[in-house]
Design brief:
Photosynthetic Reaction Center, Chain H, domain 2, six-stranded mixed sheet, DUF2171, DUF2171 domain-containing protein, 32% strand, 1 helix, 85 residues
């Protein structure tokens, strides 16, 4: 499984190469992204999560997902486990 290779500080990118975030940790079957200090409203200063089922590959410094960034962002979750709207 790729989960054990995912480490804090790794860049998370979509299949298109667009950065989605940076790994804070893994929790169960999800990747917790570092809190964003940019962006507006409810997307600032809290963690978002991405399901491990989106992971395509893991290199030394990067987690590449199997979908483009804009598609993955539709499925991001907040701590509650609910999709971000």
């Amino acid at each position: 499984m790729k989960k054990h290779r995912i480490k804090e500080g790794m860049e998370v990118v979509g299949f298109d190469g667009v950065q989605i975030g940076v790994v804070d940790s893994t929790e169960g079957d999800r990747i917790r992204l570092k809190k964003s200090e940019t962006g507006g409203g409810r997307h600032r200063r809290h963690h978002h999560y991405i399901g491990m089922d989106f992971v395509d590959s893991v290199t030394d410094h990067k987690v590449r997902l199997c979908s483009d960034a804009d598609i993955v962002e539709l499925f991001e979750e907040e701590k509650s486990g609910r999709p971000v709207k």
